[in-house]
Specification:
With 239 residues, this protein is of the alpha+beta class. The chain folds into three domains: 5-72, Arc Repressor Mutant, subunit A, CATH 1.10.10; 80-129 and 203-233, Alpha-Beta Plaits, CATH 3.30.70.980; 131-201, Alpha-Beta Plaits (2-Layer Sandwich), CATH 3.30.70.980. Helix content is 41%, strand content 22%. The protein is built from eight helices and eight strands. The protein has helices spanning 5-16, 21-35, 45-56, 61-72, 103-115, 144-153, 177-185, 209-223; strands at residues 80-87, 93-100, 120-121, 131-140, 160-164, 167-172, 194-201, 228-233. It has a four-stranded antiparallel sheet with strand order 3-1-2-8. Strands 5-6-4-7 form a four-stranded antiparallel sheet, sandwiched between helices. Strand 5 and strand 6 (167-172) form a beta hairpin. The two termini are 14 Å apart. The model has no long low-confidence stretch (mean pLDDT 89). GO terms for molecular function: DNA binding. One of its GO terms (biological process) is regulation of DNA-templated transcription. It comes from Pseudoneobacillus rhizosphaerae. It holds the Pfam family TACO1_YebC_N. It is found in: Cytoplasm.
């Protein structure tokens, strides 16, 4: 799969360590998920997923509670889910997912972040066909063989199981996300290092040093936008 999920998370956590940006973005995502159905994760799969993901980022309980209470309170604030696709230097490809209450602002900001850093926005579908939607679940304290046994016992099919550092990372179809977690929870495993629905590039590319520096500046500029929730790309960052 070519991804070092723990290293990616550590880099992101380090970047956001002294800011509240990551928590604010989760607040919006939780609010939107809670508004999409019942504000109860047991009956709202979208909310259940985002809460599982928030847990792996150590989002404080008061942020979660405030977002859910806002949804319960009947707030009329509405957000649109948007996906942008674009290109960076040397054939790099980028997908940007956003939640916004101002579509024009977000489109302008994302376009500027691409354009000012050597990239350009593409049309819908110009990049996404080179990525696969994937569930990624990571845990510690088990070997890959033990994880495989648990999943086989639960009759859950996955794409791949890899050992990374001290973690085991499971890659599965998106609709198997909750089934994979449920299988682990049946064995008392409730803490996960990774719990993501992501877009994985079918093929990663390596960039020369100067292009890689420019690419990373572009990604940082996009991720720093308040409306941007997640960014996916096809570049091997060498982490």
């Amino acid at each position: 799969m070519g991804r070092k999920w723990n290293n990616i998370k550590e880099k992101k956590a380090s970047k956001d360590a002294n800011t509240s940006r990551v928590y604010a973005k989760f607040g919006v995502e939780i609010y939107v998920a809670a508004k999409s159905g019942e504000p109860n994760p047991e009956s709202n799969q979208a909310l259940k997923f985002v809460l599982e993901r928030a847990k792996t980022y150590n989002v404080p309980k008061h942020i979660i509670d405030r977002a859910i209470e806002k949804a319960k309170g009947g707030s009329e604030e509405s957000y649109s889910e948007l996906r942008y696709e674009g290109f960076g230097p040397n054939g790099s490809m980028v997908i940007v997912d956003a939640l916004t209450n101002n579509v024009n602002r977000t489109a302008s900001d994302v376009r500027a972040a691409f354009g000012k850093n050597g990239g350009n926005m593409g049309v819908s579908g110009s990049v996404a066909y080179m990525f696969d939607a994937t569930a990624v679940i990571g845990l510690e304290g088990k070997t890959a063989d033990e994880v495989l046994e648990i999943l086989m016992e639960a009759d859950v099919e996955v794409r791949d199981i890899l050992e990374e550092d001290e973690s085991v990372i499971v890659y599965a179809e998106p609709d198997q996300f909750h089934a994979v977690q449920a299988a682990f929870k049946e064995h008392g495993i409730t803490e996960f290092t990774v719990a993501e629905l992501t877009m994985l590039a079918q093929n990663e590319i390596e960039l020369p040093e100067d292009a890689l520096a420019k690419f990373e500046r572009m990604i940082d500029a996009i991720e720093d936008l308040d409306d941007v929730q997640r960014v996916y790309h096809n570049v091997d960052l060498g982490e």
